[in-house]
From TrEMBL:
Family of the protein in this entry: Belongs to the class-I pyridoxal-phosphate-dependent aminotransferase family.
Entry's Gene Ontology cellular component terms: cytosol
Domain Aminotransferase class I/classII large: 27-389
Tagged with keyword Transferase: yes
GO molecular function: identical protein binding; L-aspartate:2-oxoglutarate aminotransferase activity; L-tyrosine-2-oxoglutarate transaminase activity; pyridoxal phosphate binding
Keywords for this protein: Aminotransferase, Pyridoxal phosphate, Transferase
InterPro entries attached to this UniProt entry: Aminotransferase_I/II_large (IPR004839), Asp_trans (IPR000796), PyrdxlP-dep_Trfase (IPR015424), PyrdxlP-dep_Trfase_major (IPR015421), PyrdxlP-dep_Trfase_small (IPR015422)
GO terms classed as biological process: L-phenylalanine biosynthetic process from chorismate via phenylpyruvate
Gene3D superfamilies linked to this entry: Aspartate Aminotransferase, domain 1, Type I PLP-dependent aspartate aminotransferase-like (Major domain)
Named cofactor requirement(s): pyridoxal 5'-phosphate
Residues in the signal sequence: none
Protein name as it appears in the record: Aromatic amino acid aminotransferase apoenzyme
């Protein structure tokens, strides 16, 4: 039977990682894969997570299964982190999932179960895995305009025009903060306009929030998600702990389904648990346990927030530096948007040819659509990148 299998397309970002590894140049720069790295190029274990692991190792007495929805303490802590007091706890059904990807996948599964004819509207561009999972699940996908390559900002008029085609029962996928891959985000009033449109059309918003704390801070980054959660009758939210807790390989995420109508809670919770059961039974526990320990212990939480703030401010400083270096070298504000963008990524708006020249001539690796991982830079490599961008005539 295996002879009937077709080759799957290679994951471009993973292929880029391999090409970087194989490149012998010592001054090569990796701006590809979406993993935070400090100035030394290391993805550290956060102090509070390490401490929680030590404590848990002492306390843990069993590795028997948790519940299908995962440990309730994890759901409670994450609902608090993402939603604050925007909605009441009994309005939120939630299950732990293997990473944010697991939450996205389970959300799509729930959508398909609830409304097989729902179309999912996604931003152009979006995280490529959104598209490939939707395709794999044969869910009809519609792209809406999002990025304006000229300004480096959001093409909000184009976005709203395209969202005008949504029908009742459709789903619109939005990035809660720190849009991947562009780094360009909606303003508060723009979010409100999207909420009004979604409600007028009877569309369900789905929020993917994978970088809370990487943009303007934990609270500010959750503001849009909270507005949507309290402003729409039903909302799906896929949250990842990979980045803000630095626990990528532990596979820790939470899917939340918020409904204003209290009577829907039990059936939604039951369906989320059912989906976990069908797909992998119990979700991973270790990362989720670390997250709930960090979030519920005052000292650990304070330390985690401080370290996360350092990470965030470090990336903001690199944005400022790159933007001003490019201003100095080009004599224009063409790259001013880099300082306006938020999160780990910026899409520079360079052609694939220029991206290839940066790789071949300068050993600078970025994704083909010119997305750079800001955390792949440090104070010393920023001038090199700026110089290279000018030299290739971008
Ligand atoms: N959504 C977006 C937009 C992402 O960028 C990522 C990570 N690349 C995820 C979800 C999921 O990440 P993970 O499964 O590693 O938690």
């Amino acid at each position: 039977m295996f002879e009937h299998l077709n080759e799957q397309p290679k994951d471009k970002i993973l292929a880029l990682m391999q090409a970087f590894k194989d490149d012998p140049r010592e001054d090569k720069i990796d701006l590809g894969v979406g993993v935070y790295k400090n100035a030394e190029g290391v993805t550290p274990i956060m102090r509070a997570v390490k401490q929680a692991e030590r404590q848990w190792w002492e306390q843990e007495t069993t590795k028997a299964y948790t519940g299908l929805a995962g440990d309730p303490a994890f759901s409670d802590a994450m609902i608090g982190l993402v939603l604050g007091d925007a909605v009441a706890r009994d309005q939120v059904a939630a299950v732990a999932t293997p990473g944010g990807t697991g939450a996205v996948r389970q959300a799509f599964d729930l959508i398909r179960m609830a409304n097989p004819s729902a179309r999912v509207f996604v931003s152009d561009p979006t995280w490529p895995n959104h598209l490939s999972i939707l395709k794999h699940m044969a869910i009809e996908t519609v792209m809406y305009r999002y990025f304006d390559a000229e300004s480096g900002g959001v093409d909000f008029a184009g976005m709203m025009e395209d969202l005008g085609q949504m029908r009742a029962g459709d789903v619109v996928l939005l990035h809660g903060c720190c849009h991947n891959p562009t780094g360009a985000n909606l303003t508060g009033p723009e979010w409100q306009a999207v909420i009004d449109l979604v409600n007028a059309k009877g569309v369900v918003p789905m929020i993917d929030i994978a970088y809370q704390g990487f943009g303007d801070g934990l609270e500010a980054d959750a503001a849009a998600t909270r507005m949507v959660a309290s402003g729409c009758p039903e909302v799906l939210i896929a949250a990842s702990c990979s980045k803000n807790f630095g626990i990528y390989r532990e596979r820790t995420g939470l899917l939340m389904a918020v409904a204003q109508e209290r009577g829907l809670h039990a059936v939604t919770q039951g369906n989320l648990a059912y989906l976990n059961r069908q797909n992998y039974s119990f979700p991973p526990d270790h990362g989720a346990r670390m997250v709930s320990l960090v979030l519920t212990d005052d000292a650990l939480r304070v330390d985690w927030q401080a370290e996360l703030e350092d990470v965030r401010n470090g990336m903001l400083a690199l944005r400022e530096q790159l933007s001003s270096e490019l201003r100095r070298l080009s004599g224009s504000d063409r790259y001013g948007f880099i300082a306006q963008h938020r999160g780990m990524f910026s899409r520079l708006g360079l052609s694939p040819e220029i991206v290839e020249r940066l790789r071949a001539e300068h050993g600078i690796y970025m994704v083909g659509d010119s997305r750079i991982n800001i955390a792949g830079l440090n104070r010393d490599t920023v001038p090199k990148l700026a110089q290279a961008i000018i030299e290739v005539g971008a």
